[in-house]
Design goal:
Number of helices: 14
Oligomer: single chain
Distance between the termini: 56 Å
Strand content: 25-35%
Radius of gyration: 27 Å
Largest sheet: 8 strands, parallel
Structural class: alpha+beta
Helix content: 10-25%
């Protein structure tokens, strides 16, 4: 990938530094480090990936049918009992949302492949789908061409089939030797005749052979996605990443590599974003030559203080990845909830408008289609994006032509002057602003800025922010104005602004949340969102959604304007509550919450190795910010609760604590008793992927039982350590 080196544009000290994707800073003074940071730019491929903005993930495979998050590698291929497949429907739905690229999980951690690989039989070729002749990646690649979507591939380095199979190649202690990629397979010649020689072991050869297939037989590949998750290892297996990289660069010259030097993980799977996301970040090793790319999860990655700690500065953008559903794979349309359009649109604005890319997973169901629930969310999100960002309200405005011409290659340099002004021909109502720096030419340099609006002839500050980078979206209460003023407050050398535009988002009925206290009293309220302008001490929900009404039901039916009106906290008992906000006759997303018994009469009976600071009572105080934690002793751990009186019980819910993501309750048994002496097993439970997805988990009992005492014995944990922690237990 060529560097985006540009002719130097002199503007004072430090501007004779060459622009590059990676710059060494070892031994430099803080002043020189900041000057060099202002010269780190994206590659052509990185810039193209940034311009994709909104992309999709597709998780599909045996887990879709087993309803698991992580497979074992021991699955019989017949488990993948797919009968129908409609990748055109996938692409239509993604296109409707404004998605520009889809990344397909060609192989997940279980090692099951979803294309006709020459190098394994553990995959779709051994499944009943199309009598073993199906190739899902081929279908998807053809649909992508039909609908104008780019294609990327996810190939898991982890491979449980190759680990668990007695003849598996992963960690088999084979010797490194020179191998030719691709290895010829009789009767399966390649149309692409290029060959490569690498010194590798058996598993790296296997991996390279499969990479070759993916990168040469399915059209242009624009992203190769490597997951860092690894459920199990064997034999000290290592990866020859330099060989992988060389093959990718040769066969997919337009592709960025996720999880390595091109694109990094945002640090969570929940759709969380940083208030300040710098793409110029420090490295202790040269990212152009290293094979070690640790996850970066800190809140601050690229401030001046962080840059000083590195030996190299490197441009590496973040992908904000999350799933439209509770989990990466489809399970069902009843208990597995789908994100609302409010939630997805909010993540879109925070990610794309926060100098990052939004990667949304949409898992197909067992009929080979996206669920209609998911499709409706995608269509609504796309509608909001088009309605909000399809019309620039600065059209016809006067001001610096370079920031109004919608051309990334033109810009104004804020050197001596720190401001610029845009005047509209008539007042317009706005609540969104977009700003961009000329990152490909001049790096990201703005560290703090403010925007004022002219209202009734006087300037009024409407938004402040930190960096801009590739793109910054500002959200603020609506204002009617005929002029905007940008004020630079802090920067790394002289920044270059390439774009400003203004928009209006039509208020929608707010997304709701339901909170139940220990007495069983329920509060229904708008779900608060971080709009990034808290210095104004205003609430976006109150500003943008005034006048809404909330309606709710407790019998599982969908609420409407004929349902009960919510006006104050209510006691509703053990039920499934559904609530919806309505504004100007338009209903928002329905919020569904399974509510358990009131906990005020519950008492702790016993807990193994209970810690003083986190007592058992914290596990049922209706406060997810407090938690019970056991001591660091060997499993199993148990906790026993007295409900105060006999209840009819049909299931329980577990909320993990997230202060420290360890000791998460992954596996165990729930038992019940009427007298605290005689116990019967209610259910065995198993929860997966808790560390990356620490959401509330539900488990139904094998059958409803009457009991006063409940005991939970934990036999497996996630997140390390030997302690167990619980933020909240609910019973239904």
């Amino acid at each position: 990938m060529p560097f985006m080196a540009q002719a130097q544009e002199k503007a004072g000290a430090g501007e004779d530094i060459p622009f590059a994707n990676t710059i060494c800073i070892e031994g430099d003074s803080p002043e020189v480090i900041i000057e060099k940071a202002a010269h780190v730019v994206p590659t052509d491929n990185q810039l193209s990936a940034l311009r994709n903005e909104f992309i999709a993930f597709i998780h599909f495979g045996p887990n879709t049918f087993s309803r698991r998050e992580w497979g074992t590698g021991k699955e019989d291929p017949s488990l993948f009992a797919l009968k129908d497949l409609d990748t055109d429907q996938w692409c239509r739905a993604m296109k409707s949302a404004g998605i520009k690229m889809v990344i397909f999980t060609a192989k997940h951690h279980d090692g099951f492949v979803l294309w006709q690989s020459r190098y394994t039989k553990h995959g779709i070729m051994s499944s009943p789908f199309r009598d073993g002749k199906g190739d899902i990646l081929k279908d998807l690649s053809e649909s992508c061409r039909k609908y104008g979507l780019k294609l990327g591939v996810y190939l898991s380095p982890a491979d449980l089939y190759q680990i668990e199979n007695p003849e598996g190649l992963y960690g088999n202690l084979s010797k490194y030797s020179e191998r030719t990629i691709p290895r010829e397979v009789p009767g399966r010649p390649f149309a692409d005749k290029r060959k490569f020689k690498f010194v590798v072991d058996d598993y790296n050869e296997y991996f390279l052979n499969q990479l070759y297939e993916l990168l040469t037989e399915y059209g242009p590949i624009h992203e190769v996605w490597f997951d860092g998750a690894h459920p199990k290892r064997k034999g000290g297996q290592t990866y020859n990443y330099p060989a992988w990289k060389k093959l990718i660069h040769e066969l997919a010259p337009e592709a960025v590599i996720f999880g390595r030097e091109d694109v990094r993980w945002c640090g969570n799977e929940a759709g969380g974003t940083r208030d300040t996301e710098w793409n110029v970040i420090p490295y202790s090793e040269n990212p152009d030559t290293t094979s070690h790319f640790p996850d970066m999860t800190d809140t601050d990655l690229g401030s001046r203080e962080q840059l000083y700690k590195g030996k190299y500065l490197h441009y590496q953008q973040a992908e904000v990845n999350t799933s439209i559903r509770e989990g990466w794979f489809y399970r069902d349309d009843t208990d597995q909830r789908t994100r609302s359009a409010d939630d997805v649109f909010d993540i879109y604005e925070r990610a794309v408008g926060g100098n990052a890319t939004f990667l949304l997973n949409i898992p197909p169901n067992r009929e080979g289609r996206f669920s209609e629930t998911d499709v409706k969310v995608l269509e609504e999100v796309g509608k909001r994006i088009r309605e909000t960002y399809g019309t620039d309200l600065l059209e016809g405005a006067s001001g610096p032509e370079e920031v109004l011409d919608d051309n990334d290659d033109t810009y104004i340099m804020l050197d001596g002057t720190k401001t610029f002004t845009v005047t509209m021909p008539q007042p317009v109502k706005i609540n969104r602003l977009m700003l961009q720096e000329a990152v490909a030419r001049r790096s990201e340099r703005v560290e703090k800025f403010a925007v004022d609006a002219r209202v009734d002839g006087a300037w009024k500050e409407i938004a402040t922010s930190t960096n801009i980078g590739y793109k910054r979206l500002l959200r603020f209460p609506e204002v009617v104005t005929d002029g905007l003023r940008f004020r630079l407050l802090a920067s790394r050398m002289s920044p270059s602004i390439s774009h400003i535009s203004a928009y209006y988002y039509a208020a929608k009925a707010p997304q709701l949340e339901v909170v139940q206290d220990a007495q069983g009293v329920v509060t229904i309220r708008p779900k608060l969102q971080d709009f990034g302008w808290k210095s104004h001490n205003q609430n976006a929900s109150e500003n943008l959604n005034a006048g809404y009404k909330i309606y709710y039901t407790t019998d599982g039916t969908t609420p409407d304007e004929h349902s009960e009106v919510y006006s104050a906290p209510v006691s509703v008992g053990n039920c499934t509550l559904k609530a919806v906000a309505v504004l100007d006759g338009e209903a928002g997303a329905v919020c569904t919450e399974k509510l358990g018994y009131a906990k005020s009469s519950w008492k702790p009976v016993s807990a193994s190795s209970e810690t003083e600071n986190h007592p058992l009572s914290a596990a049922f105080d209706a406060n997810p910010n407090t938690y019970w934690s056991s001591a660091e002793t060997a499993l199993p751990h148990s906790l026993t609760i007295d409900l105060g009186e006999e209840k009819s019980l049909s299931g329980f819910a577990y909320t993990p604590q997230t202060h420290q993501r360890k000791g998460m309750m992954a596996k165990g048994t729930v038992s019940v008793s009427s007298d605290g002496s005689q116990w019967s097993k209610a259910v065995d439970f198993e929860f997966g992927n808790l560390v990356n997805d620490p959401t509330k988990r539900f488990c139904d009992f094998t059958k409803a039982q009457k009991a006063r005492y409940v005991r939970i014995e934990v036999t497996g944990i996630e997140g390390g350590g030997n302690s167990v922690s619980v933020a909240e237990i609910d019973l239904f």
